[in-house]
Amino acid sequence: MRVVLLGGAGYIGSVATDRLVRQGHDVTVVDGLIYNRNDDPGELLPAAAKFVQGDLRDPVVLGEVSAGADVVVHLGGLVGEPACATDERLAVELNYAAPILAADSAVQADVGRFVFFSSCSVYGRHEGTVDEDTPANPLGIYARTKVLAERRLPEVLGSIPTTILRLATVHGLSPRQRLDSVVNRMTSRAVADGRIPLNGGGQRRPLVHVNDVVQVLAKALTMTGDHVWNVGSDQENHTIGDIAKTVEDVVSLAVIDYGPELDEADARDYRVSFARLREAMPEVCSTTLKQGIQEIATVVAEGIVKDPQDPQYDNHAGLRLAIASDRVAVLGSQDCKRLHAEYVGVFGDAR
Ligand SMILES: NC(=O)c1ccc[n+]([C@@H]2O[C@H](COP(=O)([O-])OP(=O)(O)OC[C@H]3O[C@@H](n4cnc5c(N)ncnc54)[C@H](O)[C@@H]3O)[C@@H](O)[C@H]2O)c1
Questions:
Q1: I need a surface site. Which of 1, 69, 211, 293 has the fewest CB within 10 A?
Q2: For residue 349, pLDDT beyond 90
Q3: Is the CB of 9 under 6 A from ligand 1?
Q4: CB of 76 closer than 6 angstroms to any ligand 1 atom
Q5: Which homologous superfamily is 2-174+209-233+272-286+314-347 in?
Q6: Sequential DSSP letters for 114-179
Q7: Torsion angle, CA of 43/48/52/53, rounded to 10 degrees?
Q8: Which residue, judged by its Cα, is nearest atom 40 of ligand 1?
Q9: What's the rounded mean pLDDT across residues 103-126?
């Protein structure tokens, strides 16, 4: 199968590229390598993958790579509220305009399937357990861009089969390592300086291992019809406090460092049902939180990751550097302006 991974040199994308190439797919990765870390695609990606350095808001690049593709997968964008809050207009261009432009190109090229990476962040804060039919409750810019993209993509894609993957918070190892999400951050800090930073602790957060996400993607490529799936497993619904305690159990000598009761920057709190995915793919998402913690603890303990606080591991800090060095900026093309206006029409004026 000819598969195009838009944003395929990132944390999840580089693991996905490796797996799909090993499965015999013809993989093309498009990525702007927007984070300021001198990434070498030759080290991040297997030699058999084609790499195109380009901007996912560029319709010419999107048109070229979509021609002849069986599947286009969009996993680019800014991840998480802190990165998106850095520049709302940029976040709207990368997280809303880019996937819509990719869908336009997919329609013109008549591709066989479009896969969009969304997030359980669309649920925001909810009592009880949420599933794919629960109304969205976006609490910030990141979640709003995902909600709007999910809503508009099927309209743009028309008869092209569409898969929407709403990921739980991802943990585990990748060639393009991130340490800024909860499990990876707590574990790397526990090993590096013996403390596990914890704000609040009561918020519920589902988790999924990066290899399991990629296994779901690989299976989704060949399934017929339209799908929206929460990606994770019911067993991996945790609270932030449980995650910290599990890190404390695995990393000997590390202790929890209790901070302010509620993390105002990230008020997400939800328990997610993964029953729909389990029915479609019964054997996926079996990696445990403990396994992910052990992986991260090992690379920090062995010095493969030298300084977990280096901005290269943190999308928010990396984005600030990328903006300061003009590696990424608001484009303001006619398409971006039009799609930004759609976002403003739904959610109000961006700063
Ligand atoms: N990691 C998680 O915990 C998580 C959870 C839920 C959803 N997701 C979703 O999964 C997807 C992948 O996440 P990730 O953790 O791999 O993120 P990542 O930041 O590691 O990767 C994103 C990649 O997209 C590229 N990119 C972004 N905008 C671009 C543009 N305009 N042009 C060219 N390249 C561009 C970046 O260079 C980067 O390599 C995202 O859509 C994210 O919202 C991730």
A1: 1
A2: no
A3: yes
A4: yes
A5: NAD(P)-binding Rossmann-like Domain (3.40.50.720)
A6: EEEEEEGGGG-EEEEEE-TTSPP---SHHHHHHHHHHHHHHHHHTTS-EEEEEE-EEES--SS---
A7: 0
A8: 75
A9: 96
